[in-house]
Amino acid sequence: MESKNKFWKGVLVGALVMAFAGLMIVGVSAGIFLIGKTVMDQPDQIVQESDPQPPGEGELELDRITEKMNYIQEIVKEYYLFDEDVELVEDGIYMGLMYGLNDPYSVYYNEEDYQSLMEDTSGEYCGIGAMVSQNRTTGISTVVKVFETAPAFEAGMLPGDIIYKVDDEDVAGMELDLLVTNYIRGEEGSRVKVTVLRGDANEEVDLDIERRKVEVPTVEHEMMADNIGYIYVMQFDGVTGPQFQAAVDDLEKQGMEKLIIDLRDNPGGLLDAVVEMLAYVLPEDKMDGMLVYTADKDGKGDRFFCDDGKIQYESDYGQQASGFPKKDGHEIDVPMAVLVNGNSASASEVFTGAIMDYEVGIVVGTQTFGKGIVQSLLPLGDGTAIKLTTAHYYTPSGFDLHGVGLKPDIEVELDEELRTKAVVEKDEDNQIQAAIEALK
Questions:
Q1: What's the pLDDT score for residue 237?
Q2: Residue 138 half-sphere exposure, CB side, CA atoms within 13 Å?
Q3: pLDDT at residue 11 tops 70
Q4: Is 272 a catalytic residue?
Q5: N or C, where is the chain less crowded by C-beta within 10 Å?
Q6: Where are the beta strands (DSSP E) in 308-382?
Q7: How far is residue 407's CA from residue 386's CA, in Å, rounded to a whole number?
Q8: Using one digit for the tens of pLDDT, what is the confidence trace for 252-269?
Q9: Which of 145, 357, 387, 429 is catalytic?
Q10: Alpha-carbon distance 233 to 339, whole Å?
């Protein structure tokens, strides 16, 4: 009981600190972020001038800061009771610099964390088979989906469980990327103890879970009654675009007359994947074929659109397209509904916003999260990196949804009793049923 009290006390303190710092982003934000094209991979682009110049307005006074850091270091050497871990202290300096930006999406990765972060996004990994999201204000990480037949499902993990400890180490407030890559995932066959807080009473539950190779089902589909196709997209990985196109093709061969695309609890992912999906869905004769575009603080950015049956890419940074497949003029010409909720973020909102702008489908569910900013991963040349917010993205009509989200055409809350069920059947899912009624 004492440890749980400390957990919630820490959460409260963290929330108050965040609020005091003026963070504007609240709500749930999952751990896969929209990473745009503006990735700086040349370490020689990040250099310090040999002849330091006086700081301009709004710039850090590096000489003064360095002098103060030296003074603090001398005090530490003289009076600190324990041995100083200089590598840990140095990492803390860089982490503090990024924290001071007041942006929960801009973070520093040391060498070990960066290597973990760069795991392949092929959709296959060794882990427990659960999707976790994080409240960016409190730092609380919550399970939003548990995959059937996965180790977490077998161990009894449920949606709504709060990740409290991993192998008895308190992970409250830890950056979600690091929590997943450094604590949850691991070698195949190894075991991990995950302690969760469950229900209104915050019951502490220990789950002993075996890590296994988990193939993430980024896209699932089936034909429902009345020739209504259903496609569920869990996240946007490198395999998602082709999987989505294959699902559409299969449903069309089966005689699909209507389509539901389910993006609930989809935290986003790779921009290339959502561009591929939009190009396969939307017509080219509206909005000049624009799919999505980004703009940095100087108004420069990237533009993705369809023209002559192909995905086109333009950049103000002189970069080349990453090799999109031909679209071959495909579009979906049946009544369509898109399901979203408060955990639908980033790339999910890119997709939904384009559907709304093109007026080719109806959106059902609850207000989306409202993450309309792009993070770029910037290697620093020494094995470390920073992830930095670098641009806004905009829907084809120019709407900036950041901090606002997208309001569904038909607002429907998921029934309370369904929110903590590991498996919800489609015939009892009231949001799916609302989408079916809307299509009819």
A1: 87
A2: 18
A3: no
A4: no
A5: N
A6: 310-315, 336-340, 362-365, 373-379
A7: 33
A8: 999 999 999 999 999 998
A9: 357
A10: 10
Spot the catalytic one: 29, 133, 141, 346: 346
Tens of pLDDT, residue by residue over 225-261, are 999 999 999 999 888 999 999 999 999 999 999 999 9
Q: Which candidate, 265, 263, 259, places its Cα nearest to that of 230? A: 259
Our answer to whether residue 346 is catalytic in this structure is yes
Q: Active-site residue among 371, 376, 387, 429?
A: 371
- What is the amino acid identity at position 73? Q
- Does this model's pTM top 0.85? no
Q: What is the pLDDT of residue 39?
A: 30
Six-digit token string for 24: 């504007």
Q: Is 371 a catalytic residue?
A: yes
**Residue 175: beta bridge partners?**
none
Q: Which two tokens stand for residue 201?
A: 């009473």
Question: 133 by DSSP, 3-state: which?
Answer: strand
Question: Which of 150, 349, 174, 354 is closest to 269 using CA atoms?
Answer: 349
Q: Calculate the CA dihedral of residues 151, 157, 161, 162 and round it to 10 degrees.
A: -40
